[in-house]
Predict the 3D structure of the following.
Amino acid sequence: MADVMNVGVNLEAFSQAINAIQALRSSVTRVFDTLKDGMKNKETLEGREKVFITEFQDNLQAVNRDLNELERLSNLVGRPSESHPLHNSGLLSLDPVQDKTPLYSQLLQAYKWSNKLQYHAGLASSLLNQQSLKRSANQMGASAKRRPKVQPSTLVLPPQYVDDVISRIGRMFPDMSIELFRPNGTSAVLLVTLGKVLKAVVVMRSLFIDRTIVRAFNENIYTEDGKLDIWSKSNYQVFQKVTDHATTALLHYQLPQMPDVVVRSFMTWLRSYIKLFQTPCQRCGRYLQDGLPPTWRDFRTLEAFHDSCRQ
Amino acid sequence: MGVTCVCQVPVAEGKSVQQTVDMLHRKLEQLGAVKQGNFCVDCETYHPVGNTSGQPPKFLYVMHNSETPLSCLALFEGGPCLTADGNFDVLMVKLKSHFQNSKGHKVESRGARYQYCDFLVKVGTVTVSSSARGISVEVEYCPCVVPGDCWNLMKEFMQSFLGPSVPELPSVFAAKPEGLYAPVDCSDTMTQYLELFSKLRKQQVVSGSSVR
């Protein structure tokens, strides 16, 4: 309301200012006209120069006068109100022919959209920075050189914290022993021994599980030179199958914000294999199918199924 | 070494030992088992010399298994079990004054070795001094080490090719406390073979009539 009144008072000044601009433009045009026409044909050279200079001076004074007038008027017009949230574009709302040019309402909608877009983009970018969807830095490939790589914050946890989380999880399951090794730098490798059933080698990157291999309790887990063997698969088909399922579980349990919960869920799931040879399939009720016991464990209920019975 | 069960399979009615063995082979192959060479388990009996006390003599059994070709196993009746190098036989010759080899007591089981998934199956013909006496079937489930854990699973597997004549949990496991698992040497397996061999030796007359 105040805006409207304020502008209404200055409307007179506005029209005067527009007139002043027109006058200024015509007087400037006149200056250039005299310059273009040059000296008039007079008898003496002095007469010609004198007339030309007088005309030129008159014209310049006219320009000066008009400019002063415009400056005076522009002070009267005053600055448009800055309190409007949309600044100058807010003045569009004053347009009386709203029906023909619905610019103002369209502008408002566009503004809302762009606000929302920025908000959501901000959220998404902070989420993506937390956990890059790529599990390996190598996948960034050649473009990594050009772009500064964003190091996900959850990949740089201190080793002490990882140790704590792992030992806490180890205490949760008495029938499961977890040993932690750091054979190469800070990345941890876990050796999980589950009862007298299986041994699992779990390779971590910070608190993310990168890879896992499951072998029989009586199989060798060390290579000939005494290092943990994290590559070769089990000799037994049943544990090759369990390894496949464990890899599926790694991809299933994903919670970028809370990596420790992921490790705990995975270990809880792995622990359900303690009765690998003792539980019949929950669907067909038999122990064996194609010579294999029920190797699948449901991710939620931890029930045992044969691989082909789980659907 | 996984959990192993050795059992005797009765000779089918109206069939010879060889025919019954062939039938078992066929059933295993139908199941999808793959033949992987042969196997042999033998057992020689030594009796003590100069038994002065009135007690019945205790025998010493020396056994070989093709699964562990470099070792041999010496079992003293009702006593300790010893795993030794293959040339333990030579030592026994030197101990002639204490233990004498009972000739004609040599028992042997020879046959084919099959693999099916993680199972090892050995179907053998048991011969006592070169006459066929019966059929032995050894089933091993390699990935598991606790007999009590996988027994139901093994029973189901054995039912699939032996039919209803499935044995109970071998007594060598039943006697063990919970949680003890099969050792790396195959002494549990050999104990079971020994029990089977002793049974077949005693059955000599009975089973002899059924072999044609």
Q: What stands out?
A: The helical segments of chain B are 17-31, 88-94, 147-162, 171-174, 187-202, 204-210. The longest helix of chain B spans residues 147-162. The beta strands of chain B are 3-9, 34-48, 60-65, 71-76, 81-85, 99-101, 107-116, 119-128, 131-141.
